[in-house]
């Protein structure tokens, strides 16, 4: 059983860090290199990973892993859309469903507001974990070091200590917010969907000019409730 658990941990780490070598994987996972090498050999033989750029010293996931992820994604969408629709009706704003992928969250579904002033993000848009409501909602539930934090706007949190304090606040109140940290014209509140780890996040997204402090708190409570509802459907 431990060999299976090690292989799954290695696969997850490859997906997060690809392309990645044995030494980096061993350090990140706290496992001996020999254990990591055995897991890599097993995953390679099973078709889950392949050498990156033909180099046997660095690895990346194959389309097999991506196909499984897509099938999982479709199930997530099916469960999420009714929850998203209710959230849209209660807020009148655009609702986003995003999934974590490495150091980002990726938009996989959206329900748009009927209001004429809106901000439309294409499906597949990647948002940084540290500079978006969806990203911070997920990051607050991940045990990982806060490394390089690039700035995107004047309000992006680039100090790891300040970000850690912000993530503690996210856990305390149950939702994250974005005050123009990725794009200055976008505001949002988001909550992680825990099943049991953060498999996705839901957000209410608006033009920054429309997000008052009162609405931020109201939408935050609504999105946190919607995320709990979706988590119950998935668990």
Automatic annotation (TrEMBL):
Q: Name one GO molecular function term.
A: DNA binding
Origin: domain of life: Bacteria
Q: Which GO terms of type biological process are on file?
A: negative regulation of DNA-templated transcription
Q: In this protein, which residues make up the domain named IclR-ED?
A: 64-235
Instruction: List UniProt keywords, sorted A-Z.
Output: DNA-binding, Transcription, Transcription regulation
Q: Would the keyword Transcription regulation be found if you checked this record's keyword annotation?
A: yes
- Gene3D superfamilies membership: 3.30.450.40, Winged helix-like DNA-binding domain superfamily/Winged helix DNA-binding domain
User: SUPFAM superfamilies, alphabetically?
Assistant: GAF domain-like, Winged helix' DNA-binding domain
Pfam families in UniProt: HTH_IclR (PF09339), IclR_C (PF01614)
Q: Which PROSITE patterns match?
A: HTH_ICLR (PS51077), ICLR_ED (PS51078)
Extract the SMART domains matched here.
HTH_ICLR
Q: Which residues form the HTH iclR-type domain?
A: 1-76
Name by which UniProt lists this protein? IclR family transcriptional regulator
Query: Which species is listed as the source?
Result: [Actinomadura] parvosata subsp. kistnae
């Amino acid at each position: 059983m431990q060999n299976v658990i090690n292989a799954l941990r290695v696969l997850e780490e490859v997906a997060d860090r690809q392309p990645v070598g044995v030494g980096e994987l061993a350090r990140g996972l706290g496992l001996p290199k020999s254990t990591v090498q055995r897991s890599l050999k097993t995953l390679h033989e099973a078709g889950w990973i392949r050498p990156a750029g033909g180099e046997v010293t660095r690895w990346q996931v194959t389309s097999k892993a991506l196909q499984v992820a897509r099938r999982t994604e479709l199930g997530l969408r099916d469960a999420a859309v009714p929850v998203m629709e209710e959230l849209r009706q209660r807020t009148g704003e655009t609702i986003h469903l995003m999934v974590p992928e490495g150091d980002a969250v990726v938009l996989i579904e959206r329900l748009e507001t009927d209001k004429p002033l809106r901000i439309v993000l294409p499906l597949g848009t990647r948002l940084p974990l540290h500079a978006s409501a969806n990203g911070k909602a997920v990051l607050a539930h991940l045990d990982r070091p806060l490394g390089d934090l690039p700035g995107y706007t004047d309000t992006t949190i680039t100090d790891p200590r300040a970000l850690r304090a912000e993530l503690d606040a996210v856990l305390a109140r149950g939702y994250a917010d974005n005050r123009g940290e990725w794009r200055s014209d976008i505001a949002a509140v988001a909550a992680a969907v825990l099943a049991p780890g953060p498999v996705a996040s839901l957000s209410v997204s608006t033009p920054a000019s429309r997000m008052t402090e009162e609405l931020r708190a109201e939408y935050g409570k609504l999105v946190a409730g919607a995320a709990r509802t979706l988590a119950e459907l998935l668990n």
